[in-house]
Amino acid sequence: MSLIQGTIITFSILPFFPFLIVFAVCRYILKMEKKKSLLTSMDITTFFLIFSVAALFNVMFTSRFGFYLILLLLLLALGLIGGAQNRIKGKVDGKRLCRAVWRLTFMAMTLAYTLLTVVGIFKNIFNSM
């Protein structure tokens, strides 16, 4: 059990590793096409990015609100995109809605991870002077 926990924690700290591993497995071992391998890698990495960004947020701002803020933003995105989908098509396709929000979450969490990491590095450098 501790091996599984350690692996999940490591992948949450370094979320680009699961992306590379899943992409390599899908592309070269399972022989998926490039686009499908990329999308599968994004879907799996999003899970690790959410926890990583939440942890970075909590450390940067000395709070415990990071995970809940991400959940709140996910619910808000679901509502907004679902409302737009309902206005345009007259019905909500749950599978497409969840896929769209999950992929947007990947992009947002990648940006947030990069930004928080850079800010954290500079914060550490300037606090140690």
Report on this structure.
The protein is an all-alpha fold and 129 residues long. It has one domain (2-127). Helix content is 86%, strand content 0%. The protein contains five helices and no strands. It has helices spanning 2-13, 16-29, 34-60, 66-89, 94-127. It is globular, with a radius of gyration of 17 Å.
By secondary-structure content and strand pairing, the structural class works out as mainly alpha
Compute the CA-based radius of gyration: 17 Å
The domain tally reads 1
Q: Per the principal axes of the C-alpha atoms, what is the gross shape?
A: globular
**Which bin fits the share of residues in helices?**
over 70%
Number of DSSP strand runs: 0
Largest sheet: none
Spell the H/E element sequence: HHHHH
Summary tags:
single chain; 129 residues; 86% helix
Topology (elements, then pairings):
Blueprint: H1 2-13, H2 16-29, H3 34-60, H4 66-89, H5 94-127
Helix pairs in contact: 1-3, 2-3, 3-4, 3-5, 4-5
